[in-house]
Amino acid sequence: MEKKEHKSGFAAIIGRPNVGKSTLMNQLVGQKIAITSKKPQTTRNRIQTVYTCEQGQIIFLDTPGIHKAKTRLGEYMVDVASRTLKDVDVILWLVEPSDYIGPGDRHIAGQLGSVRLPVILVINKIDTVKKEEILPFIDAYRKLYDFDEIIPVSALRGINTDDIIETIFKYLPYGPRYYDEDVVTDQPVRQIVAEIIREKALHALDDEIPHGIAVSVDLMKKRPRGSVTDIDATIVCEKESHKGIIIGKQGAMLKKIGSNARYEIERLVEGKVNLKLWVKVKKDWRDSDFLIKNFGYDRKEV
Fold first, then answer.
1. d(Cα 75, Cα 59) in Å, to the nearest integer?
2. Which residue has the higher pLDDT, 40 or 248?
């Protein structure tokens, strides 16, 4: 009988909004796939990335932050995160370094109560606290849930992230690889492009606007000789006043968003990009099932 040498399986990264889930996933796969921002609710869809090594293959699912939903889009995001917990072999629960456990983390602990899977607590951002403070944080979370493992890390600095990979493999079954070894994500390039544009808008705009924007890529086409990719994209917002802010004085803000996005998209497609951006108003789109689906957030695809 042939010996099964490889392990393979799925690992969900969960946690409250803004604890560093996307930063961790990008660090683990060694490439930027998920967009990052200091603003909550940056990740809206379940993003799948692939880590392959001699030991085997881990498929990471970066989920939206679990939070109390206030809009249809919020409900969709929480639904995505909750459903993901049923499709994986191991759960990484990401938290910030603190001995105060708020209602958000207590809510997640309650959800995990019905999940019979290995749960690894990852205490992120340890580079922001003193070493002697970490043990009390671990003790506080141990009282909340019976974790299989607890790993303090800094996703941003890459501290202890190799320990996460080793620990996940302990809990994965033996089996074949799901993807070829050069595959890093199952996300379509158009979707990654839309997310890059949204990330640059998140970085550039005021706090109240980013929650209400979506990006659709209307055209993405390589020119015949393949030297330039033409991309037309629309930033959708909820209010006329937001449209003015996104465009900026004499188009300065939109130009800044486009310039920052183009630089990163060119690295993604490995070639020159001609990016054109438009801004449209779709009032209350986050509460419209039709528009939510139209912008790529479809419950049926979860």
1. 25
2. 248
**For position 300, what pLDDT does the model report?**
46
What's the pLDDT tens digit per position in 111-145?
A: 787 778 999 999 999 999 999 999 999 999 999 99
pLDDT score for 37: 47
Tell whether the torsion through CA atoms of 284, 62, 215 and 205 is positive or negative. positive
